[in-house]
Amino acid sequence: MNIPQELKYTKDHEWVKIEGDIATIGVTDFAQSELGDIVYVEVETVGETLEAEEVFGTVEAVKTVSDLFMPVAGEVTELNEKLADEPELVNSDPYGDGWMVKVKISGELPSLLSADEYAELVGA
Length: 124
Known about the structure:
Elements: E1 8-9, E2 14-19, E3 22-27, H1 29-35, E4 38-42, E5 49-50, E6 55-61, E7 65-69, E8 74-79, H2 82-85, H3 89-92, E9 101-105, H4 115-122
Antiparallel strand pairs: 1-2, 2-3, 3-9, 4-6, 5-8, 6-7, 8-9
Keywords: Lipoyl
Organism: Algoriphagus halophilus
Function: The glycine cleavage system catalyzes the degradation of glycine. The H protein shuttles the methylamine group of glycine from the P protein to the T protein.
């Protein structure tokens, strides 16, 4: 299982890459493997400001639909447009081309899990 050291993680299986005041967010390798083949990603919160732990979208797999939770508070500024035509990128490249949204961070960063803490959470 791939758990990049440079990223932060949530107990809800989202990853966060923080660059200045911009956070790139997606779901972890563990999450995509548990969900199975992803067929649709829905994010209708672009332009909205959300609090940490609020739902920013959903991901639909062959067998289930799962909510996506904001790991940080901020304004959703960008959606990964590639996912409209290629939602399977979340399966094949969850930490690269499968990213979901970019957020302009507002307020304090919540405590997020390190790669080692996340690996312990998922039993990796």
